[in-house]
Specification:
By secondary structure, the chain is mainly alpha-helical. It has one domain. The chain is built from 2 helices and no strands. The radius of gyration is 17 Å and the shape is elongated. The two termini are about 25 Å apart.
Length: about 70
């Protein structure tokens, strides 16, 4: 079973963005987690989640445009 080139690109980009999110959450935990997250740490986690959602939405739109723009011409 062969996987299309576009599908592989989508998978790789998604895994990279999720990896970036994990690194960001670990960084927030490292920065604010000595005595518990507290209000500032909680706000940083919410910001990380919001950034992840917005980045994934942007990546999805960009991939849909770049990978499937030739399909619309037909």
């Amino acid at each position: 079973m062969e996987i299309e080139r576009a599908r592989i690109i989508e998978i790789v980009v998604s895994v990279l963005v999720v990896g970036l999110f994990i690194v960001l959450v670990i960084g927030v935990g490292d920065q604010f987690g000595q005595d518990g997250l507290g209000p500032d740490g909680g706000l940083a986690i919410v910001g990380a989640i919001l950034a992840f959602v917005l980045v994934m939405a942007g990546v999805g739109i960009a991939l849909a445009y770049w990978l499937h723009r030739d399909d619309a011409v037909e």
